[in-house]
Amino acid sequence: MMSLRQNYILGFIIACILLTTSVYLQLFDGFIPCPLCTLQRFSFFLIGFFFLILIFIYKRTILSMFIHLLAISSAVMGLVFAGRQIYLQHFSSGGNECGVSIQYMLQVLPLSDVAQKIFAGSAECSVDGWTFLRLNMAEWTFLWFIFFLFFTIYLSFKHRQYK
To answer: Cβ distance 101 to 35 under 8 Å?
Structure first.
């Protein structure tokens, strides 16, 4: 049975591996992330960051429960982004235009327009791209966000018993 701190370390390491894999695929395999992919990466970053914080403050009950809620929210946010991308890949009308990077959109457009354009999708979002075991990148990230959601909920209940 792993301790609470070891579980937080495990969650942090998994998030780091997932982020490292996505950066590797971008730099060395030519996988260009769409805006939804970038937001999924940000969600993994937040989850990893919250697990890193929990490694050090797991004895502080109220603060760590708040961090658990933030990690759960990040996993749900990632599920929304990955789910939207999966929807675009399987049910896209093909009328999506090639979009610009999320960084450029944030510089020139109001935040409400950026959110609308991201969820409308672009041509990059509807491409399956990289696959492993017949699942594409968005489907894998969806599964990993489900894992993090249930893992964090489990750890929050385990933390309540830890006192």
So the answer is: yes
Q: Are 48 and 21 in contact (CB under 8 A)?
A: no
Query: E strand or H helix at 87, and its extent?
Result: helix 61-91
- Distance of alpha carbon 103 from alpha carbon 65, whole angstroms: 32
d(CA 76, CA 65): 16
Nearest-CA neighbor of 137 among 91, 51, 78? 78
pLDDT in tens, 113-163: 666 666 565 556 666 677 778 888 889 999 999 999 999 999 998 877 765
> Residue 34 is encoded by which pair of tokens?
């769409």
pLDDT in tens, 11-40: 999 999 999 999 998 899 888 888 888 899
Domains observed in the chain: 4-162 (1.20.1550.10)
Residue 33 DSSP code: P
Q: Is the dihedral of CA 49, 146, 13, 127 positive or negative?
A: negative
